[in-house]
């Protein structure tokens, strides 16, 4: 079209931001990509049309007067002036030339899609979706528009929304002149997501800034509910490197509540959209199939490659044609700016009473006075440093959110408005708590912690916390490989920024406890569970899965896969389950499947369980999870490790059983390690080393069994010390045996994390790798560099002097 005020998407590129704004220019750019990226057709009402409208109406003078001398911190004054500015712009009307151009564009869309086509009319400011500022949610959009009169009115309202209170405040804070920013309007065919689903995706992890995943959220109906935080969406992760190598598997799923869905009303109805409850059966299903998730991931990678930076993308599935459309794409402006040369860690210094939990946003901690906001009038009482507690937040609240120490909401997921703003402001938020506004007392003091993984908590009172900041840019790496011990997949992405060589110990039993919570045999055989209430809880836990076995394998593989993806392609050593019988029994449904033992630490644990009739089915599920991670997910950096192998014949039995279960050492590059944690492992180190690709010394059990000290007993704790000369001698013999056999020697026990001098001793013995707790990695690395610098060639192990131990008063 030759109309200077109307331009269709096919005519636009990113170079047109000054005339059509970032949102619409990006839609034009997307439409040109092709390669399977579908964009609904539409046109832009240009920024020139906005300026022409105000000029013809003589509105510039009154508009400047309305905003002259504005103090955005005065909420009441901001509201009055913003309303006056919006009224001036709206009342300017539309020149007939521009109105006729809009009608012409509408006619073309009706010819393309049919007379009953419904429209989305969306604001697009000329300063919007820039690389460093998003302007997300600052201006208005109007949905389900039909008819010329309604379309023209929606365009006028979009023009006026350049002066929403939140947009005025946002521009002021970021140094934008109100009159240097103009507003364009995107008029586009509305994807019928009301009959299907929609959502938001990011080409990185929004919490950590980890760039090797695509993070997808979705819910039924129109996407406004996700953005506004009105619904808890489904979440999906896809690992980019293995996806591009050909693995077609979703790394991780999380089923959201999806309690409501936004649908369209009849054209002309006010309001044009409404929320309806989602049937229970649909809530138990994901809003996307895995195939659709992978299609979205492929489109996301295409878009990211085209733009050359991490992206924030809105998608919508059309319930009529079944296709997935991209309806917006803009640069991600928060997590992608996370520094990779500095490491900041928040640590709780005490244990408060948890009032409520939800989804953690931002790995930080903050304390403050609760200010519960139930209506707009409550915002006037909000003071700097308060903790905002509300059902949800809206873009109108942004001036107040900038003063908050933290945010807590009843509703919403990791891509809701509260989450997006909290990340941008660098404050912690706990979203989707369900009942936060009811359970947290107004005016009380609380501590909001998002530094403990995916789950955020609100603690009563002021719980002490500290912040550790480390500059990694000048860090010298030791020659000895330093790895990390990890149990919680939810912190894997953030932990991966540590300068380590992989994961030396990923504890499978911790993943089972945190991500599954039920005994594998209870999931496999719920009919054997005697307690009816436990059976009901098992059924609720596995709702949406074909059976308990599938649930266990899927959840375990996703937990392990998340850790493996975080450190890809570095090795991730996954220890097969090493619960003791009392710990297994504590899992949901576990009591009927475990024997009672007087000393579980020395009982039915580790390798002894794996081929035993009492647990062989459980071990088969564990192996199925490892096999799925390596084969389906493509994460071949996973190395299974067998714990507590008492005898050589037991090692042979376990390896044979793994072979039968599809995990044969040497096939498809599979390595198998074993723990070296029993004196017999050291005494027969040559025999054990001949059967495995690596041995990892577990100082906790090896110390216990060498000194004859029950490490669970506080009474004899004075006799438990990994620095004892006899224990150190066994460490040295094990390392020497691995070197003789030419296999990997590692150390994953607690000792080097607690005692740097033990780490130094291991280096002098020629250990290949030391695996540490995350909070001791940097400190121990510095120690090892010093130790290596001063190391003199020696073939004999250097034993540390026996520590002086004080006897307790029994």
Short summary of the structure?
With 810 residues, the protein is α/β, with parallel strands linked by helices.
Main attributes of the structure:
810 residues, Glucose Oxidase, domain 1, 36% helix, 7-stranded mixed beta barrel, D-amino Acid Aminotransferase, Chain A, domain 1, 30 helices, 20% strand, 30 strands, disordered C terminus, Dna Ligase, domain 1
Q: How many separate structural domains?
A: 4
Low-confidence stretches: 128-135, 799-810
Measured as a percent range, the helix fraction is 25-40%
The separation of the N and C termini measures 92 Å
Report the CATH architecture of the largest domain: Alpha-Beta Barrel
Number of helices: 30
Largest sheet: 8 strands, parallel, barrel
Number of extended strands = 30
- Rg, Å, rounded: 30 Å
Descriptive notes:
The chain has an 8-stranded parallel beta barrel, surrounded by 5 helices. The chain has 810 residues and is an alpha/beta fold. α4 packs antiparallel against α6 and α29 packs across α30. It contains 30 helices and 30 strands. The radius of gyration is 30 Å and the shape is elongated. The chain has 4 domains: 185 residues, ATP-grasp fold, A domain (Dna Ligase, domain 1); 144 residues, ATP-grasp fold, B domain (D-amino Acid Aminotransferase, Chain A, domain 1, 2-Layer Sandwich), CATH 3.30.470; 130 residues, Glucose Oxidase, domain 1 (3-Layer(bba) Sandwich), CATH 3.50.30; 310 residues, TIM Barrel (Alpha-Beta Barrel), CATH 3.20.20. The protein starts with 5 loop residues before the first strand and ends in a 20-residue tail after the last helix. α15 links the parallel β23 and β24.
